[in-house]
Design brief:
Length: about 160
Amino acid sequence: MSLSQNPFPNDPDRSAIWTMLVPRDIEAYVKADWSMVEDDFVTTDFFGVNGNGKDNPDGWTISYPTLELYRDEWLRQAREGQSVVYAEDQEAGIHRATSLTEIEISGERAIAHKKFDGEIKRADGEVDRLNWQTVYFCRKVEGQWKLTGFVGYLPYPMGKPV
């Protein structure tokens, strides 16, 4: 059972993308278990762009030119999170901070906008602040939605109000 509600219960495609990027990804991350998500990727041509917290794309970098490099960093961060003692349930805290309500689908391609905005209380009295967004690129492969890449670690909200 997910700790957050699927906003797309009557849309099989968006529901599948949401399930991949929210409950499955969060649970795998908290458990530092890549095997739970490894089949969610198109391994050929995958790459990840690190927004480095910058609004301006001139500051973005291809930090993950291969899925293997992304996997290694994902596992490093997940294991680092496991070393923190939280005053509350980490998985519930990540769900509380996560929003994924915007998914555009065009044929066999999709863009999903995942936003993080919240805090998880740590046992030492501090908080882990989650405040960024990621834009994921997906492709339907043999009837299943998979990730082909992303632009992540972007500011949230991004840009200045008009």
